[in-house]
Hints:
18-stranded antiparallel β-sheet, alpha+beta, 8 helices
Amino acid sequence: MKKLVLVIGSLCALLSMFKLNAVFAEINISEDVKESIEVNGNMDDLPMDLLKGVEVAPYEENKDRIFTNEKDFAAEINLEENKINFSDAEGNEITVLVDDPDLKFENNEDGTIIFTNAEEDYSVENQILDGGFRQIFSIDSNDAPKEFKIDIEMKEDYSLVEEGGMFYIKDSYGNNIYNIGKAWAVDSLGNFVETKYEVKNQSLYQTVNYSGDNYPVKADPLFCSDTINNTSTKWDKNYSSGKGTFSVYTRTCTKAYITAHWALGPSSITGLSQAKIMLDMWSEVTADADFKKYISSSKTGRIKDQFICHAANPLTIYKSSWNLEPWRPDKTLAGTYINICNPE
C-alpha cells in the first residue's frame, strides 16, 4: 500500500507539471509549448521504469534461438552469437549484433537473452518487443569498456542516418524503416549518466561517459519498426452510452521510445508532435479502416490532439489503448493537454 501511495503521489506531481506547461503553451503558443517535463536525473522520475517495466514479446524457444512470429512482425535471437534478427510485415529486415566474439551466452531470463564477456566485465541483454527490439549493455565495473560498436546488417539500399540528433534506418527513398530510440544510460541507483550515439561506416557506436562507482551502469539501444497495432485498433460503438470511441493500440517498443524522447529531452509537446515517429504513428492511425469509416474530416484535428496528448501524458501513455473520442470539443492541443486528453 505504501508503494502504491508513493506511485500515485509521483504521478500527481508529474501531472501538475504537465498541466502547468500546457497552460504556458496556451498563453503563448508562438514560443512553442514549454518543456513538457524535466527529469530530475533519475529513472524514478519517469512514469515507467525503462529497464524493468518494458514487457518482452511472447516467444518460443528451441536449442539455439528464441523466436517470435506475430501477424505484423517476426524476430529471433540467436543463442550461439549475440545477434537479433527482425522483420516487419513488409519484409523490412535488419540484423543487429555487437562486434565482440568473446560475448558468450549465459542464460535466458524470461525472454531476456544475456551474453557475457567475463574477461572485460560487461554483458548484453537482448529482448524482442512488440514492434521492435532492444539491447541493454550492462557495464559492471570501472574496468569494463564504455564504448560499444553495434553492427547492422541490412539491405544495400538502406542506410543508417542521423538527423537533428536522432538516428534512423532509411530506405533509398528516405522513408523511415526503423526508428532508433534516444541514447540513454543509468547507474545502479537509477541516475541518468551522459551517453551518446555516433555513426561510423554504417555501424552505430554508443559511448557512456561515467566516472562514478555505482555499477552496474546500463545503456539501452532501442530499434522500433511498426508503431501501431492496427489489428487490435478499432471503433467501439458502445462506449460512453453509445457515443463511441476509437481505441488505438500502440506498440510496446514505441511507448518506450516516446518515453525516452520526451522525458530525456528536453522536449516539448509541439516538438513531440513533429517527431518522425509520431508522424509515422499518425499515418498508421489515419490509414486504419475504422478511422476512415467513423472519423469525419471535420473531427480529425481534435482526434490528432487527443492522440498526441496520450503520447505526452504520464497518466495515459502506458494505457493498454488510447481512447480517442470525436464527439469531444476541439480545445487545441494545449487545451486538450490541460484536460488530461479528455477535453470537455
